[in-house]
Specification:
The structure is a single chain. The protein has about 675 residues and is of the alpha/beta class. The protein is about 40% helix and about 15% strand. The protein is built from 22 helices and 23 strands. It has a 6-stranded parallel beta sheet with strand order 3-2-1-4-5-6, sandwiched between helices. A 6-stranded parallel beta sheet has the order 12-11-10-15-16-17, with helices on both faces. Strands 18-23-20-21 form a 4-stranded antiparallel beta sheet, sandwiched between helices. Helix 6 links the parallel strand 1 and strand 2 (about 155-160). Helix 2 packs across helix 3 (about 55-70) and helix 3 packs across helix 4 (about 80-100). The two termini are about 30 Å apart.
């Protein structure tokens, strides 16, 4: 799919955006152009007069401007009658062009024409832009994430039934809330119906790069009120309409269509629908993706930041490029200066990099590994200190969390894992269903009964004489989706606060889901506490897919374990080729007796990759409670062979300031397991 814009396409796109959003400037330019044309016409007429023979055009422009501004200075002593006629015409042109009243009148006419044209939604002359049909609270976050990408060459059109000024106000408020020093300008907001062919014609839908089909604000509210089926059908109905609209004129470069869905049934319905408008349709099951992200971060909490930065533009992201001829991944790791090749998918190679420009087909010189490899294949240990995971709360993501954990346990039986469910009395029947379900029996051990909490302020009592928190490695707090906006995130915040009051001796990893981004700052990140802002993950994901929808398969592959329904991509082909892990160095290198000092990050990457026979590829580490990915950030190099990325907080400084990299037992190493079976 060709996504590059030519110079003239970029210029036309910019002019279209500025004309739509700043009609007054175009009025001013139009008036200037009219005046210049009038002066040029007057100069040409004066140049034709007999007494002006031999004079130059610039001289005539000066005379013409003098006549137009000061009519009393016209040629009074000319012997040619034609001169009187011509100079009179020039004076009249000056009166039309430069007289204040006339200018005001003409300006008013032109302004009215432009305003009426804008209100009637004239057709946009955009190419390869991103179209968002319908509007909800996720859209401003999607726009915000593009500030970390190539924002000059990204163009977005929003079409919804919401007032244009209100939408723009909400987007501006989000930027101010995040204190962004940038503002996304290449955006056009139009009020209209996504089910109107005329409105779709006017926004140039067939020339778009990507089309995001979102739920509207009213449909989002319906979901909270347990009318989710109606909400899902509205998205499916819009998908059918867009498919019919695009299918009437199929071209070589058809836009990708990305519908927003919330359950397996709706996703299956769209996948099995005969999509005639090209080859690219990527339904995004937001609950499934969030559930899988929560599952993997619940088991390995330090992956929360890593996945957010891999999915968002603020950091590194995935890129698919043609495989370099006769160059293996092991060889390319020795050549690439900044980007990191991960694995080959069909005829493409997957990289993580800050931007596409940093992915080179050559390097400054081949790196020579200095640290000796072990005599036999090094088999790292992927395990955990404490085997128990406590899940507090229940929502529409719990199914996917438990499904993912079951597949994780099957694929890695040595990673001991048991799950305890906890919730308040109103959800007792719901979590009891999961605890008694045969498909999840492998997760709950001998005692599958859930913990029912009567007092949310004192939830951590004794169960069978022992503490609920005994042997708990991580605690996952889920938000309550079936509540009004005034109570959103109330349950996870209260449970988290109760745990922190009781968690005196044992330090537990906390993963707290919040739905409202404003509540993120309430949670103090003590020790390794993580905050999963659901809408932030989803908006980052949509922003990525808007630029390149093929990345969806790469992201799903990374967080999906074999045997899961999601281990197939958009073409229903098995793609479970890699998994991501974050493990303590003391466990990962438990059967290696050498030192853990490396000359550089590149040496750590190559050493582990070759010592494990190309099965494990380090992509980062966690030192001093700061999570890094091994890929260059422009202007933020720490002086090592391969630069670091992703301090956990924006104001965190890069703390590794020496050539050598030494892993301590409590440090974590972030690796991707390449599945070869």
């Amino acid at each position: 799919m060709d996504t590059e814009l030519s110079f003239f396409q970029k210029l036309r796109n910019k002019l279209s955006v500025h004309r739509e959003n700043n009609p007054g400037i175009f009025v001013f330019i139009f008036i200037i152009v009219i005046n210049v044309v009038m002066i040029a016409l007057s100069s040409a007429l004066l140049l034709l007069l007999p007494e002006n023979a031999g004079r130059t055009f610039p001289e005539m422009m000066r005379f013409a401007f003098t006549l137009m501004v000061n009519p009393s200075g016209r040629y009074q002593y000319s012997d040619y009658p034609i001169s009187l006629i011509v100079t009179t015409v020039v004076v009249l042109l000056g009166m039309v062009s430069l007289t204040g009243g006339t200018v005001g009148f003409v300006t008013n006419i032109i302004t009215n024409v432009l305003v009426k044209s804008a209100s009637s939604h004239r057709k946009l002359r955009l190419k390869k832009h991103i179209v968002i049909l319908n509007y909800n609270h996720k859209v401003p976050s999607i726009i915000y994430d593009y500030c970390f990408d190539d924002m000059k060459n990204t163009y977005i059109v929003i079409l919804s039934n919401k007032d244009e000024n209100e939408v723009r106000h909400q987007i501006d408020n989000l930027f101010r809330a995040h204190q962004a020093n940038k503002k996304f300008k290449n955006i056009i907001i139009r009020k209209g119906s996504p089910f109107s062919q005329l409105d779709l014609d006017r926004i140039g839908l067939k020339d778009a790069r990507t089309i995001l089909l979102m739920k509207s604000d009213s449909e989002e509210n319906e979901t909270v009120q347990n009318n989710a089926k109606n909400s899902e059908f509205n998205v499916f109905k819009l998908f059918m309409f867009v498919n019919s609209y695009l299918g009437k004129n199929v071209t070589e470069n058809m836009p990708c269509v990305i519908p927003e869905v919330s359950d397996k049934q709706s996703e299956k319905l769209i996948r099995e629908y005969p999509f005639t408008a090209g080859n690219y349709c990527f339904p995004v099951n937001i609950n499934e993706l969030l559930g899988k992200i929560m599952a993997v971060t619940a088991v390995m909490p330090s992956l929360c930041d890593v996945l957010l930065h891999l999915i968002g533009f603020e950091g590194v992201e995935f890129y698919l490029k043609d495989i370099p001829e006769s160059l293996s991944i092991a060889d390319e790791l020795k050549l690439q200066d900044s980007a990191m090749p991960i694995l080959d998918i069909e005829n493409k190679r997957l990289y993580i990099s800050e931007n596409e420009i940093l992915i080179k087909n050559y390097g400054s010189g081949e790196y020579v590994l200095k640290k000796p490899l072990p005599d036999k294949k090094f088999i790292p240990c992927l395990a955990n200190d404490k085997p128990k995971l406590l899940i507090i709360g229940s929502n529409n993501k719990l199914d996917y969390i438990l499904d993912s954990l079951v597949c994780f346990k099957k694929e890695f039986p040595d990673f001991k894992l048991t799950v305890v469910l906890m919730d308040t009395e109103e959800n007792a029947e719901k979590i009891s269903y999961y605890s008694n379900s045969p498909e999840y029996s492998s997760l709950f051990g001998d005692d599958s009964s859930p913990v029912i909490v009567k007092d949310i302020t004192e939830p951590f009592g004794k169960k069978d004489g022992s503490s609920i928190l005994d042997d708990v490695n991580s605690v996952l707090f889920l938000s309550d989706a079936d509540c009004d906006e005034t109570s959103i995130d109330e349950k996870p915040l209260l449970f988290w606060n109760s745990l922190k009051r009781n968690d005196v001796k044992d330090i537990h990893n906390c993963i707290v889901e919040v739905l409202d981004m404003q509540n993120e700052n309430i949670i103090e990140k003590r020790n390794r506490d993580q905050v999963v802002v659901s809408e932030r993950f989803i908006s980052c994901l949509y922003a990525q897919l808007g630029k390149d929808p093929v990345r969806l398969d790469c992201i799903k592959d990374l967080i999906t374990f074999e045997g899961d329904d999601a281990s197939v991509n958009s073409n229903n082909q098995l793609v479970n080729k890699c998994n991501i892990f974050s493990v303590k160095a003391s466990l990962f290198f438990s059967n290696y007796h050498g030192d853990l000092t490396f000359d550089s990050k590149r040496e750590l990457i190559l050493w582990v990759y070759e010592a494990t026979d190309y099965q494990y590829l380090p992509i980062g580490c966690m030192k001093n409670n700061v999570c890094y990915l091994f890929s260059r950030t422009e202007g933020n190099n720490d002086g090592l062979d391969t630069a670091v990325l992703l301090p956990k907080n924006n104001d965190s400084e890069l703390t590794i300031m020496q050539d050598k990299l030494t892993l301590e037992p409590e440090n974590e190493i972030i690796v991707i397991e390449i599945i070869t079976k």
